[in-house]
Amino acid sequence: MIKANAELDCLGLYCPMPIAKTAEKMRELKPGEVLEILADDEGIKNDMPAWCQATGNELISIEEESGKYRILIRKKGG
Amino acid sequence: MKEKMTLILFSGNLDKALAGFNLATAAASMEIEVVIFFTFWGLNILRKEKKVSPTKGFKRKMFGMINKGGTDNLPLSRFHMSGIGTKMMKQLMKEMKSPTLLELMKLAKSLGVKFVACTTTMGMMGLTKDDLIPEVDALAGAATYLTDARQSKINLFL
Questions:
Q1: DSSP category for residue B134
Q2: ipTM of the predicted structure?
Q3: CATH number for the domain including A16?
Q4: Which residues does chain A have within 8 Å of residue B32's beta carbon, measured at their own beta carbons?
Q5: Are A23 and B30 a contacting pair at CB < 8 A?
Q6: What is the pLDDT of residues B98-123, one digit of tens each?
C-alpha cells in the first residue's frame, strides 16, 4: 500500500476548486512525493486524470466508495 | 513553451463571469497561461463599486447612473428579476460552498491569470485606471488581444 506524504480534503467542493486546490497543494510537495485527495464531486473521476495528463503528474489510483473518491497522485520529477 | 489560452469577457453578467473564471482557474491549474480581455459590459467586472474619477459629459453621467460596476452589482443573464433571482443564486452558491466571483478572481490572480482592460470601452464609459481594481495587469486594445490569441490554442468569447 502506497503511503501519502500529504492530504487534501475537497469534500463538498465543486469544479474548479478540487483541481485548483490540488495544483496549489502540489507546489508544497517534493518530486516523487504522494498526495492523497478526498472528493465527492463526480466530475473529479474525469477531471483528475485530465489534470494529471496536462501537468505530467502521475495518477496512481482513484477509488470510489459510496460517492466518495480517494485519489493518489505522485508529483512528477521523482 | 507553455500553452496559452485567452478569454474575452464581453458580458457583464454574473453567471457568464463565473463560467469564465471557472475555466480560467481550471486552465491556470493545468499550467496553461491565461489572459482575460475585459471589454464592453465585461469591464464592469473590473470596476470598483464607486467611481473615483470625475465623469465628463451628460451622456456618460446618465449612462453611469444605470450601468453599475463591481462584482456585487452584476446581474444574472436570466432570472435576475430585479435582483431577487440573483440574490437567491448567490445564497444557493454559498450553501454549496462554491466560491464567489470575487474569490474566484483572487484565486485566478494567485494562479497567474492576467487581466487586460479594453481602453476603448474605458473611454466610452468615462473610466480611468483609478476606477478599476488594482489587479488589472494592462490596459490595451484589439491588437494586443489578437497577438495573444494567435499564440493560443484556446480562445473563448463570453
A1: T
A2: 0.87
A3: 3.30.110.40
A4: 54
A5: yes
A6: 999 999 999 999 999 999 999 999 99
